[in-house]
User: Fold these one by one.
Assistant:
Number 1:
Amino acid sequence: MAVRRETNSARVTLRDVARAADVHPGTASRALNAETRSLVNPETARRVLEAAEELGYRPNPIARGLKTNRSYTIGVLIPDITNPLFPPILRGIEDRLEEDGYTPLMANTDNDPERERIDWETMRSRQVEGIITATADRTDPLVEDIVDSGLGVVLVNRRMDDPAVRAATPDDRAGMRLAVEHLAGLGHRRIAHIAGPLEFSSGFDRREGFLEAMRDTGLEPDPELVVVSAAFTESEGAQACRELLDRGHAPTAIAASNDLIALGCYDVLLERSIACPSELSITGFNDMPFAGRFQPPLTTIRIRPYEVGAAAAELMLEALQDPGSQPRQIQLEPQLVVRESTGPPPELSRG
Amino acid sequence: MAVRRETNSARVTLRDVARAADVHPGTASRALNAETRSLVNPETARRVLEAAEELGYRPNPIARGLKTNRSYTIGVLIPDITNPLFPPILRGIEDRLEEDGYTPLMANTDNDPERERIDWETMRSRQVEGIITATADRTDPLVEDIVDSGLGVVLVNRRMDDPAVRAATPDDRAGMRLAVEHLAGLGHRRIAHIAGPLEFSSGFDRREGFLEAMRDTGLEPDPELVVVSAAFTESEGAQACRELLDRGHAPTAIAASNDLIALGCYDVLLERSIACPSELSITGFNDMPFAGRFQPPLTTIRIRPYEVGAAAAELMLEALQDPGSQPRQIQLEPQLVVRESTGPPPELSRG
C-alpha cells in the first residue's frame, strides 16, 4: 500500500481531501499547513484534518522537503491586463494555483524592459517562489536572469526558442494553418499576412505557420503580401494594413496575426470603402471576447486562453514540486471559428 | 521654510525625487528605503539619494511612524477580471499605488461570499496593509470584518450605504440621468429600465437615477417598465429583457444598467426580429472596450474606469498615511457617448 501511494495515480491528493471535507482546496491547504492553520475557521480545520486522516493523505514529500519558509506566492508578469487576451489567461493561472494553495501576484509591464525589471525586483522582494511570464521575447535576458536566480520560470502564451524553458502556448503554427486552409478553401489565391512582432514567438510562429501552410496548399507566398505590424494593437495593425494595400498587390484576403490587428484592418477598410468580405476577407487570431459581435462578426482562431493559463500554472507546480523534472512545453490545439468576415474572393463571388 | 514643507502644496514628494533622478517612482521608493535598497542598481540608488538630498526630500513623517515591518502590499478584490470593466480599474489602482511603492495583490471572487472570505484570509496571511474591493454589497459583513481587523478599506466602483467607508465610483445617478435625458430628447416617452442587482450600489443608484430623471423630465415611470436583472451579464440581461417585453407594455427605449445587459438586449432583439434603433433604442452604461464596434455601435455612458481605480488607490494612500483623516467618497463625472443604438421612437421616425 505504501508503495502504491507513491505513484501519482493512486496517491490521495489535496483535492481529494478538500472534496471529502467539502471545502475549497485552498482552504484545505491552509488547514493542513501548521503555519497557516490559524487563518482557517477552527471547525473547518478540524474537518479537513479528519478527512486527511481518514483518506491517508500525506503531502507530496518532495515538495515538503524543498523549503521551510514558503511564501506560497507566484509572480505573474503580463504585458497589459486591458488587452482582452490576458484576463482569461490570468483566471486560468489563478484558479489552478489556488487549488494547490498558491496565490498569483500580477503586474503589468507594458512590454517595457525597464518596467519588467522593476516588477521582477518587486516580486523578488516579495519572495515569490516562481514567475509565470507572458512578456518574454524569443531570447530574453530577463528570463535568463530569473533562471539564474534559481526560481522556477514558466512562459505563458509566448515561448522561448530555448526548449529548456517551460511554456504553455496555443499551437500558433497549427492555428495559422487553419486560417490559410479556410481561405484557400474559399478560393483565395492572393492571401496576405500581417504578422505580429517577430521578436515574440506568437508573431514569429504564426508567420512561419502562414508560409508553411501556403506552400503546402500549393500557393507560393508573395513577399509583397507579408508585412509586420509593430505591435499587436488596432492602431499598429491599421498602419500595417495601409502599407500592405499601398503596395498595390491587391490581396483578396488578409490573415492577421491577432484579432486586434484584424480590427485595425476593419478600420482601414472603412476608410477606403472596401467591403468585407465581398471585396476583402479578414481573419483574426485568439477569438477574443465579443469577436462575434463586431461588424462584421470576425472569423478567427479560438485558442482557449483560460486553459493556456491553467496549463502554465500546472507547469509551475511541476517545477516547484519536482525541480529536477524534464521541462515540458505544452501547445494547446486551436480551432477555426467561421463567422462573417470571410467569403469567396470577388472574382468568384461575381462569377 | 520647515513649516512650509509641512503643507501638502510645498512639500517635496517622492514623485519630485523620482523625476529629478529620472527613475520610476517605485524605484525611487525602494532606493530611499534601507530595507529595499539592495533591490535597486547601486548607481541608480546613488542618483536617487542625491536627488532626495538636493531637493530636501523627507518621507511623510506620519506614514513613517506607523509601522516598522511593512509589506507594501494592498489586497484588491475583484468580482471577475474577465468582465471588461475591471482590467482598466485594476490598471488605475496598480499605476497609482506603484508611484508610492505599493504593489496590488489581486484576487477574483466571482461575487461568491465564501470565496471572498477565503481570498480575504489569504490576503491577511500575506500581511496586506489595506484592501481595495470592488465586490461589496451595499451592506457588507465582510467589509465590516475587515474594518474591525484594523486594516484600511476602500471600495471601488461600488460604495456602501455607510458614508464612513471610503469609496471611489462613477456618479451612477448622474450617469443614468444623462441616458434618460438623451432618450427623452429624442422624443421617447415609454422608456424602460433594466436595473442591475439592487444589493450593489451600482445597480441601486442607477435605478434611483433613472426614476428621478424620469420624474424631472415630466415622465411618470411605469412600474411595468422597470425590471431587475439577476446579474450584470449578457445572459441575465437577455432574460430580463424577455420578461420586460413579455409584459406587453411596448417600450420604445431601454436604458440598461450596464453594457453587458445592453448586449443581452441586442440578443433578444435579434431573436424577435426587432430593429435597433428604428423600433427600439438601447443605451448601455460603462462604455466598455469595443462598445463602438458592436452591431449597432452602442450609445452608452462613459465612466473612465482607469481614473476610478486611480482615485480608489489615492483614497487608500490617504487612509494609510493619515488613518485619522475624514473618510471621503469620490464620485467621478460620467459622460454620454452617442452612437447608433439610439434614435427617435418609431411613431416619430415614421411620421
Number 2:
Amino acid sequence: MKIQAVKGTRDFYPEEMALRNWIVDGWKRVSVRNGFAEFDGPIFEYLQMYQVKSGDEIVEQLFSFEDRGERKLAIRPEITPTLARMVNQRINSLPRPIKWFSVPRLCRAERPQKGRLREFFQWNIDTIGVDDVYADAEVIFTTIDYLQETGLTAKDIQAKISSRRLLKALFEAAGFVDDELPALYLLLDKKSKLPAETFNEMLEEKVADPARRKIVAQIMGVKELNEVSRLMKLPEEASAAMAELEELFALLEVMGISDYCKFDIGIVRGLAYYTGIVFEVHDIKGELRAVCGGGRYDNLLKDFGGPAVPATGMGMGDCVLEILLRERGLIDESLAARRLDYFVAVLDEALRKDAIALTARLRRKGMRVEMSYKGGGLGKQLKAASDIGASTCVIMGREYIEERKVAVKDMATGVQKLVGTEELLVMP
Amino acid sequence: MKIQAVKGTRDFYPEEMALRNWIVDGWKRVSVRNGFAEFDGPIFEYLQMYQVKSGDEIVEQLFSFEDRGERKLAIRPEITPTLARMVNQRINSLPRPIKWFSVPRLCRAERPQKGRLREFFQWNIDTIGVDDVYADAEVIFTTIDYLQETGLTAKDIQAKISSRRLLKALFEAAGFVDDELPALYLLLDKKSKLPAETFNEMLEEKVADPARRKIVAQIMGVKELNEVSRLMKLPEEASAAMAELEELFALLEVMGISDYCKFDIGIVRGLAYYTGIVFEVHDIKGELRAVCGGGRYDNLLKDFGGPAVPATGMGMGDCVLEILLRERGLIDESLAARRLDYFVAVLDEALRKDAIALTARLRRKGMRVEMSYKGGGLGKQLKAASDIGASTCVIMGREYIEERKVAVKDMATGVQKLVGTEELLVMP
C-alpha cells in the first residue's frame, strides 16, 4: 500500500517545520508584546456556525461531516466565529478590553493554487469591547510591527486602508439599500483580481441601473481621502466615517508607521461581517494576493446571540507571507540547523555505557546532547557529529577511566581541553 | 442564534491556553534536548490510511468525510501513519537515524469521558532506522525525562514495560497462530480495565480451548521477568526477546531511571502494529488511564509501501497528563498571568497621543507594553494597570512635557524614579 498526502495539504519535514515555527513564534511574540493573550478553539464546530455570517465564499469551501449522532459539523475555515462564540459565553465575566490572538490551523475546500492551500495557519488578533478607533490603529500597528520584524520594509509592503462604514454611507446616498450591499462588497472585493471587462459584466448583472453603475465607478475611482467630499454632498454618516479615517491616519502617524499606510477605497473585504475600518496588507509590486486583512466587525457578537459589543481584528495566513519572505530573501536558511550543546563520543567501544550515562545526565540538566548510534572508531563518530552540525564534542577516553575527565573539543577550531564530568554537568 | 461548542471538544480561553502551551512547550524542549527534530503532517489524510494498521478501536473512532472530488478523507486520529507515509516518501534521502517528534492535534469520535476527549493533543517521539534496543531505552528515557521535569516522581508514576516479541513467541509456543494474535492483544490490553468475570467471558469467546485459556492465564500471571523461563522450555525467539528485555533494563539503569521502570507482562498495547518492546506509563495509584504508551513497530513502514526499516516510538496525550498534574498539585496557578514590561499612564489626557507614541516605540523594541484604553484620572489608569498584573508603570506628566522624562513606578513597592524616554527605550 502506498498512500500520498491529500492535494492542497502540506507535509512539514523538520526543515519546513522549523520555518513554520519561526513564523508562528514571531506571530506569538509580537502579539504578546502588543498586549494580546492567546486563545484557541476546537478544530471543528457545528456547521451552522459558519453558514450565518462567514460570507458565501467561505461557506462554499467548508469541509463538513456528520458524527455518529448525526450532528452536522465542519472543520473550521476561520476562527472569528469561534471567537464570537467563546466571548459571548463569558461576556459578563471577561474583563474588557478583550485583546486576544490565536494561530489556528484552518481548512478550506478550495482548488489549491499559489498562496492558497486547503490547509493553512492563520494569525488572528482581535480587540473586543473598544469603540475607539485607537483599537483599529493598534491592530494595524501590531500587524506592521510583525511584518517589519521579519525584515519587510515600506518598500516591500503597504497597508491599504478603507472604511465599510464610509462605503455603506456613500452607496446608500447613491440609492442602494442594505440588502444589496453584501453582494456588491463581494464583487468589489474581487475587482482588482478580475479583468476590467469581466468585472463590468458582473457589475451589470448585479446593478441594472446604468446611473448607479456610474456612481459605483466614481466612488471606486477615488484616489485620495480628500477626494471623497467631491463625490457628493456627504451625508452625516459619511462625514463621521471620514472623521474616523482621518483620526486613524493621525494615530498611525503618531505610532510611527504612516510610511506603511495608505488610504485605498478599493479595499472592501469579502466577508459579510465588517462594519467600519477595513484594511489589507499587499506587497507593493502587487504580484501576490493580500498578505493579510482585517477590520471592524461591530455586529458579529450580537449576530451570534450575544450583546452588541464592538470589535476589530486581523487575520494573516502563512502561505502568501512565506512566498513574500522567500522572494525578498528574508528566510534564514539555517533555521532548521540543529543546535546541539554536545555530541558525546568514545575512544573505546567498552565506554559506550558510560557515554549513555553521561548523555542521559547532561540531558536531564537541560542540555541538548546526542551520541552515535552506530559507534565505530572515533573518526566515524566525529563524522557523525559533524553531519548533524554539532559544534562541540565530548570525547571519553583514557582520562575518563583514570580520572573521570573528558576532552571537550571545539569542532570549528579543533581545540580541545580536559574537563571533569562533574564540571561539565554544571557548565552553562 | 446561540451556538455551543461540540461535546468532547475544548475551548482554550487564555488561562487554559497558557496551560496547554506550558505542556506543549515542555514536550518540545525535552524532545529537542534528547535529539529529536519536530515534524508535522496535515490534519486530514486519506481515510484508507487509517483502515490498514491502526487497530479496530481507532478505525471505529474516525471522523471521516468526502471532499468535492468524492475522495474519502478522515481527520487524523493518530500521527504514526502520517509519519510512516512521510518517511517512506523520502526514505532514500533522510539521514538515519531519523529521530522525529510531533505535537499533533488529533480527533477521535469516541464518547467523551474522564481523560478521553474527541479532540486532544499528543506528544509523539519516534526513532526510525535503529534496531538496537538503545533506541527503545532512549524513547523511554525521553518520556521519563519530561515527566520528571514536571515534578512527577517515581512515587507518582511508573513505566511498565513488556515485549510483544516475547508475548508472540510464548503464545505461538502455546499453539496460537499469527492471525489470532491481534484480537488477543486487543482483549489482553483491556484486561486491567475490565471486571475479571467480563474479561473471562470475552476470553472464552475468543479462545475456545480451555487448555489454551489456561496457558494465557499463566503467561499473564507472570510477575517478574525471571519467572518467564518457568512457564515453559523457552523457544529460541522467546529467549532472544528475554535477552532484549534484560539489556533494556540494564540500559535504563545506566540512564539513571530504573526507579521509574518495571517489567509488566500485562502491558500489551491495543494497536496492531507493535512488534517488540512495548511500554505504558501509569500513575502508581492506578486511578487513571495510561499517561502514555509506545513501543517498537518494525513492520509499519513496509506495511505502508516502504522498505523494512525498524522503528520505535511513544505517544502521550494531554488529557490524562493534565488530570494527573492537577491532582498532584504540579500546575503553577500563575501560568496565565500576563507578564508586562510596562504599563504606560498619563497624568493629563492631553498627553494621550504621546503615550500612544511611547507605547508603540517600546513595543517595537520588543518590550511587552500596555496602556489604558479608557483613559481617565491617573488613579483609574493605575487600577487598570494593576488589574492586568503590570509590575512596572511608566507615568507621563509635567516632566515629560518639560524634559522628555517619565516616572518609572514599581507597582509592588510604590518606589518611582525619573528616567529619560530615550534611556527607557534601551533599558533591558
